[in-house]
Amino acid sequence: MSTTASVPTRDESVARLGQLSDIARELLDRCRAAGASQAEVSCSQEHGLNVNVRMGAVETVESTRDRGIAVTVYFGKRKGSASTADLRDESLASTVEQACAIARHTEDDVASGLAERELMAQDLREFDGWHPWDVDADRALDIALACEQAGREQDARIENSDGASVGSSESLGVYANSHGFLGAERSTQHTIGCALIAGKGDQMQRDGWYTTAISADDLESAVSVGRRAAERAASRLAPRSLPTGEVPVLFEAEVARSLVGHLLGAVSGGALYRRASFLVDSVGTQLFPDWFSIEEDPFIARGFRSASFDSEGVATRASSLIDRGVLQRYVLGSYSARKLGLQTTANAGGVHNLRIKANAGNFDSMVRGMSRGLLVTELMGQGVNAVTGDYSRGAAGFWVEEGEVKFAVDGITIAGNLKKMFSAIEAVGTDVDPRSHIRCGSILVGRMTVAGE
Question: Which of 23, 60, 186, 377 could form a disulfide with 397, with the two C-beta atoms 3.0–4.6 Å apart?
């Protein structure tokens, strides 16, 4: 068990951001004095509390306090970077010297440099993302213990536990560059989770549940998390395999967003300029059914990835990624954009909040609508070929017959090709999983190969 100083209060965060901003300006001045033609600085500070319990006993209590300073300089088209966690003046000076020394000994890269000055964000806003949770270690442990106890008492078939956890974090960040841009951000995130084991011996099955949110007020109760974990674990008892064949596959919302993740990987600049994507030269191509769309919205209140600017200071904007099934653009930062002869899409550091359009009802109606097929609730392994789009992953879930869940399924593999899978999507549900920046309901793929017995 470890302890550190308490995390900053709500009011202290503004002062801390001011201190980080001052450090960023000082470092930019040092970079200019060292002869850099361009420079950028990122300063971050994080505070967190995490506790874990198992079988009614405390396992770990961890209080964290981290910070980091990263400096990148450009001498023409030569780039150098260095970082430190030490805020002493001599350490900051040394970090700038190291970055400059690296830049002077690297080769020119015509794509390097800051994003264009005219793209820098001007309207800097917050999106209700700062909600510190006034919870100390004792209170967090009480919540975790109540969560696990509720799950263990929910069903007599719950024989064991992998534990329950409570986590709370606060993050402060400043990005500044020699264009005169300086942006400060602050965010919080809180989580309660539980994993339980049902059955005995070689018949044991494990599953769990968690809730996560920007504000603790938006978390599910600890009791409901524990009970849902128990229900999920018990429902997986007595699993069967399936005969090999082709059937419809319904991806539960929690795993459905992984399909969107594969799309993002394929349309990201790094994969594209390396020609390591099955979607090279695909802008304007029909990839999905004509009702399908994905919108990026960086401006959602309490969104997990809401921001006025990306990690290069470029102003974010709401835009379509997929419109009527057609890929509208790639996902680019300034470097990958230059490598491709394009312009940044304000996605340095990744995408912001994504909304996937629904064309069907809630989860129960999705199951009824499938009538017969495989409901996938867990995916295992990393069997996805980014170059060809070939997809093969271990899976577990449930067999659906006549629109009803009949029995648990385990020990199978589902396979296909992502291009064909995207075009074969028949429905997206309204049962959006709120625990991610990818806001997606369950996804029904009309036909996939299921390899079992």
Answer: 377
Last residue of one domain, picked from the residues 209, 234, 259: 234
If asked whether residues 181 and 269 sit together in one domain, one would say no
**Residue 418 belongs to domain spanning:** 245-293+353-451
Residues 229 and 283 occupy one common structural domain: no
pLDDT above 80: residue 1: no
Q: For the chain, what is the largest distance between any 2 Cα atoms, rounded to a whole number of angstroms? A: 73
Q: What is the pLDDT of residue 183?
A: 98
Q: Which of 233, 268, 212 is nearest to 433 (CA)?
A: 212
33-54 pLDDT, tens per residue? 999 999 999 999 999 999 999 9
Q: Which of 234, 253, 272 is the last residue of a domain?
A: 234
Instruction: Return the SS3 of 327.
Output: strand
Angle ∠(71,73,76) on CA atoms, nearest 5: 170
DSSP 313: S
Q: How far apart are CA 246 and CA 427, in angstroms?
A: 18
Which two tokens mark 109? Answer: 């890269």
The pLDDT of 293-300, averaged and rounded, is 98
Where do we find the tokens 């030569």? Answer: 78
286 part of a folded domain: yes
Tens of pLDDT along 318-358? 999 999 999 999 999 999 999 999 999 999 999 999 999 99
Given CA atoms 361, 404, 154, 228 in this order, what sign does their dihedral have? negative
H helices of 274-344, where? Answer: 334-340
Choose among 320, 326, 352, 349: nearest CA to 336. Answer: 349
User: For residues 289 and 425, is the Cβ–Cβ distance under 8 A?
Assistant: yes
CB 188 within 8 Å of CB 215: yes
Task: Give me Rg for the CA atoms of the chain.
Answer: 24
Are 347 and 332 in contact by the 8 Å Cβ rule? The answer is: yes
Question: Which strand ranges, in their side-by-side order, compose the sheet holding 57-75?
Answer: 78-84, 57-75, 38-54, 158-177, 182-198, 205-213
Q: Is 5 exposed, middle or buried (0-12, 13-18, 19+ CB in 10 A)?
A: exposed
Percent of the chain with pLDDT over 90: 96
Q: Is 149 helix (H, G, I), strand (E, B) or coil?
A: helix
Summarize pLDDT for 46-76 with one digit per residue, the tens: 999 999 999 999 999 999 999 999 999 999 9
